[in-house]
Design a protein that fits this description.
35% of the residues lie in helices and 22% in strands. The chain is an alpha/beta fold and 333 residues long. The protein folds into two domains: 240 residues, 3-Layer(aba) Sandwich (Rossmann fold), CATH 3.40.50.300; 64 residues, Arc Repressor Mutant, subunit A, CATH 1.10.10.10. Helix 2 packs across helix 3 and helix 9 packs across helix 10. It is globular, with a radius of gyration of 25 Å.
């Protein structure tokens, strides 16, 4: 080694047996049982509602109420970096979500505090990479039980890139936040991002950017909406929890509800009723039998079953008889 060279430190190793013997703190779930603490990238199709989904989650956490219609969250403080839309848009959405009249003179500042809980809204022009992370940590130190930090959106705080190594630059852009998430293991850090035209079969390929962004995070989620569909699909892929897909629906008050975690939740109520009846009656039934059992008009049942057969949601072993799809066919599909 040259005399003026910087000494190379030895590797800091840990024996596997010692690692196994060590008692590690359990992973903190922020939205049970789907989203753990850590750094998450949440992307969504244009107008799918990703900002509304995150604002709804922030309100649920600060108010100490179930998220998205029924998922447990621990009450705590939340910070929302509303760089897109600004504070006026954020305020208008809160008013609609909480269904309150801000012009009602009966309400005082204390009432509004009770409505929202410790939810802080801010804006920052500082880019990721150093200064923004310092600002966020100042808030984390001062906040009581910080549970959620949302940055909306990544493009508003993205550091400048040179394009020499896109993967490394994308990784470096989120590395400071990843370090912050490691040091604050009871907090969920969400970076709202955009999607692109999907490349391949993996839904996560819709997230704009290189794989460097995925490498820096503890999980990713994508909110997708079909053109004419009332529901959206929230695909969640955490590093330290099970993958899941939630069918969610936004109500007229802009708040979200999880309808289910399987494909059946996306179906109309009539189709769901028929599938539930077939689950209980595996030998099947004719449209007339099903119509009488469910008290649904015969013509509607016939139409449902025809469409469900074409979509491979039911089987028709012989003319006029419909049965649940067999297990073998489901697995093959």
């Amino acid at each position: 080694m040259p005399p003026n060279a910087t000494p190379i430190p030895k590797l800091d190793v840990v024996r596997a047996c010692d690692l196994l013997a060590e008692e590690l703190a359990p992973i903190r779930m922020i939205v049970e049982p789907y989203i753990p603490a850590g750094l998450f990238l949440v992307a969504g199709d244009p107008k799918a509602g990703k900002t509304l989904l995150m604002q709804d989650l922030a309100l649920s956490i600060t108010r100490g109420e179930p998220a998205w219609g029924g998922l447990h969250v621990d009450q705590g403080s939340a910070l929302y970096l509303a760089n897109e839309g600004g504070q006026r848009s954020f305020r208008d959405r809160i008013v609609k979500m909480l269904e309150i009249d801000t012009d009602d003179e009966a309400y005082s500042a204390k009432d509004f505090e009770r409505f929202t809980g410790p939810l802080d809204i801010t804006q920052s022009s500082e880019p990721l990479g150093d200064r923004l992370e310092v600002q966020l940590e100042w808030w984390l130190v001062e906040a009581e039980d910080p549970r959620l930090v949302v940055i909306d959106t990544y493009s508003s705080v993205a550091p400048e890139t040179r394009g020499a190594n896109r993967h490394q630059e994308d990784y470096n852009g989120l590395a400071g936040l990843a370090d912050l998430a490691t040091r604050w293991p009871n907090t969920l850090f969400v970076v709202v991002h955009h999607t692109r035209k999907m490349d391949g079969d993996d839904i996560m390929h819709k997230i704009s950017g290189s794989n460097g962004m995925a490498a820096a995070t503890d999980g990713m989620a994508v909110l997708t909406r079909s053109a004419a569909a009332r529901q959206c699909l929230l695909s969640i892929r955490p590093r330290n929890a099970e993958e899941s897909e939630l069918v969610v629906e936004r109500g007229p008050n802009l708040r979200w509800t999880v309808l289910g975690d399987d494909e059946r939740a996306t179906l109309s109520e009539g189709r769901q009723q028929i599938l539930s009846w077939l689950d209980e009656n595996p030998d099947g039934g004719t449209p007339m039998v099903i119509s009488k059992a469910l008290d649904i008009e015969y013509q509607n049942v016939r139409q449902y079953l025809t469409q469900m057969f074409e979509a491979r949601q039911v089987e028709k072993p012989r003319r006029g008889l419909y049965q649940p799809v067999s297990k073998d066919e489901t697995e093959a599909a």
